[in-house]
Design a protein that fits this description.
By secondary structure, the protein is of the alpha+beta class. It has ten helices and 13 strands. It has a five-stranded mixed sheet with strand order 5-4-6-7-8. It has a five-stranded mixed sheet with strand order 10-11-9-13-12, covered by helices on one side. The two termini are 29 Å apart.
């Protein structure tokens, strides 16, 4: 069903672009809610779905981190335009709004990518922490640039870095950074994902040949900044992405040169984080999802490793591991029955299959 809606949605906008449809379509709808605001949101959501179809599968949302579709639509200004309320008021204990709403029939591909990335990850709480090398001092300019970039993508829940930085006092940040899982800490520190980076900045004098066998000082300095960062899912400790960014800057004196390098780093690092979260979001909306019932996280990890070794499997991610239940995402071109057949013949972990569905399975260890 998810693929069906994706096909309908994609076909709709391909045709819209082909015929150069840019005008809005007026839709008359009735929204219902507990108050005026919730009824208006409901009306907007219905209007968009009537024009474009329900292109995002609501099953990707979890009870723990529910994101309302109407909130996502509202954030994407390219969908909903003018709202003309015809009548409104309470009826049968609920607030109802009848309205004519303009819906853009040809929102930009950029808007669509943003909405899909946010929805795939359930608009998670994200913390960004970038430390100077061998220091507890934050590179606040880089943190701010990355958070601003994520907010521009419609990720709305940015966690204060100073709160999550308290992890360092328990040496958890270092464990996370080095790939040692520290599970169940996301709720304690108000974040689902953390962008954790370490930054090193140096500078040197810029000299040029004096054509006498030596060099002469130019009065300028070359600043160099290198940041290695990891995007980590806090509830499982899984490192989802790792990347390194290098930038430079020139100025009079070491301080100015290093500041210029850091300024360039802020922009480049923000671009890289955007790219990585798009990839994470894309992975979350594809492949198979396996629910594993087990109180032994080591066995869950072993099962994930066995999955990684199977033919046709590109990547495996442990998305969640709480209260005896783990969620494993598998990027694969295998169907679920074929995958489980291969797994049963190669896995080092004994498991039973409780149920299977289209693109999903439930196992018990």
């Amino acid at each position: 069903m998810k693929n069906f809606f994706k096909i309908i949605f994609t076909t709709f906008f391909v045709l819209a672009g082909f015929f150069n449809i840019v005008e809005a379509r007026e839709v008359t709808v009735t929204g219902v809610g507990t108050d005026r605001e919730s009824a208006l949101k409901d009306a907007r959501r219905i209007a968009v779905e009537e024009v474009a179809g329900t292109f995002i599968d609501s099953r990707t949302l979890t009870n723990k981190s529910m994101v309302e579709l109407d909130e996502i639509y509202l954030k994407s200004s390219g969908f909903v335009g003018k709202v003309n309320v015809l009548n409104e008021g309470f009826a049968n204990g609920m607030y109802q709004i009848r309205a004519v709403i303009d819906v853009d029939q040809n929102p930009s591909p950029e808007i669509l990518r943003q909405v899909q990335a946010v929805m795939a990850l359930n608009d998670p709480r994200i913390a960004v922490i970038v430390f100077k090398e061998n220091s507890a001092v934050h590179e606040e300019a880089i943190e701010s640039a990355i958070m601003d970039r994520l907010i521009s993508l419609n990720f709305s829940h940015m966690t204060d870095p100073n709160i999550v930085a308290g992890l360092q006092n328990a040496q958890m940040l270092n464990s996370l950074y080095n790939g040692r899982p520290v599970t169940g800490i996301g709720s304690s520190f108000g974040a689902d994902f953390i962008v954790l980076g370490r930054c090193r900045t140096t500078s040197r004098d810029i000299k040029i040949p004096d054509f006498k066998g030596g060099y002469q000082d130019t009065g300028l300095n070359d600043g160099q900044t290198e940041m290695t960062a990891k995007i980590i899912r806090l509830d499982t400790g899984d490192i989802l992405e790792t990347f390194t960014v290098e930038t430079s800057g020139i100025g009079e004196g070491n301080t100015v040169a290093e500041r210029e390098a850091l300024k360039n780093m802020a922009n480049k690092a923000a671009e890289k984080v955007e790219e990585k979260f798009r990839r994470i979001g894309a992975r979350s909306s594809q492949g198979l999802q396996i629910t594993v019932i087990s109180n032994n996280y080591n066995k869950v990890q072993s099962l994930a490793n066995d999955l990684r070794s199977l033919p046709g499997v590109q990547n495996v991610y442990i998305r969640e591991n709480l209260n005896g239940k783990a969620i494993i995402d598998v990027d694969t071109d295998q169907n679920v029955d074929r995958l489980l057949l291969l797994l049963s013949g190669r896995s080092s972990v004994n498991f039973t299959v409780e149920s299977t569905g289209s693109g999903s399975a439930r196992l018990r260890i």
